């Protein structure tokens, strides 16, 4: 038998052994296929950064046709659920009890001050406990007010004086749906869990079960051992990725404007990075519990918090922004959001893919360097 044929047999045997071990362990299958299903359903349906149906108090001190018209504008908006109050004190009490998130106050002189210079004809009070919600609510109120005021001025044959006329155009996510932003980024978190968490225990499991000694006396080489252990988990991870992409496209209606093959290639590259991190943790830890805890701390949590999946990196402190450059998920999230929402923007895709390629070589190289075929290593 030639050396090449012997190497193929050893590698095939190692892959078969690891595949059988995966099939005998239902938790691996659950992490690869059930967990993406649960996370995508949770984030796709249960988590939303959109502001819809905001309860809003409308205080009308002197009802007339103009105040009724403005209230109607808020009622026709998908963003608000207006509730009318007779005085400001009742509205403030509702705001204190969080029955409403904002107040629009139409005073007695509302109609008289319309289109007049000096002084605002309406008052706006917003609950600022949630700063993001407060900014969104304030912006939506201003939008409804501005549109109604322009319509009112036009009906009176008066031109509304404005220093700047805004004509907003939203690119890439015209509907401004947070689901289109969250679901692609969640794929990076899912692949991090599948790749890093599962492989972080493959070598540690051999040490705990006492089967590592049996592997050491076989003629298998270190490179063959690594490939044999990683190949089944690579296939498992790519299967989880395909399931996640299918759910994103057909269940959540997230557009994929870029190339599917570019997405597959970038996903394979990131999966190799995640596998390298998990294998390095497993080789160093030699204990499944410790390896699992380390993988959560150094792979999952950074991917969830510091990748740009939910929190904007540019709004973080400068020191934290620098730390995000060592988080592989940061680069993959940028690729995912670009391919799904913008298309094949190759400067972004290739630059981030290059960073992932460097990390893949680094982690796999360190894992190879730390793997020995001797007990005293």
Structure, described:
With 377 residues, the protein is of the alpha/beta class. It has two domains: 19-47 and 177-370; 54-155, abc type-2 transporter like domain (abc type-2 transporter like fold), CATH 3.40.1710. Helix content is 65%, strand content 6%. It is built from 15 helices and four strands. It has helices spanning 3-23, 26-46, 65-76, 88-96, 110-113, 131-155, 178-199, 202-209, 212-216, 222-250, 260-285, 288-305, 318-323, 328-342, 346-370, and strands at residues 54-60, 80-85, 102-106, 122-126. It has a four-stranded mixed β-sheet with strand order 2-1-3-4, sandwiched between helices. Helix 3 links the parallel strand 1 and strand 2 (80-85). Helix 2 runs parallel beside helix 10, helix 7 packs antiparallel against helix 14 (328-342) and helix 8 runs parallel beside helix 11 (260-285). The longest helix is centred in the middle third of the chain and has 29 residues, at 222-250. The radius of gyration is 28 Å and the shape is elongated. The model has no long low-confidence stretch (mean pLDDT 83).
Morphology: elongated
Amino- and carboxy-terminal Cα gap? 32 Å
Q: What does the main sheet amount to?
A: 4 strands, mixed
How many helices does DSSP assign?
15
Strand proportion: 5-15%
Calculate Rg over CA atoms.
Answer: 28 Å
Give the strand tally.
4
Helix content: 55-70%
* Structural class by secondary-structure content: alpha/beta
Order of helices and strands: HHEHEHEHEHHHHHHHHHH
Uncertain segments are: none
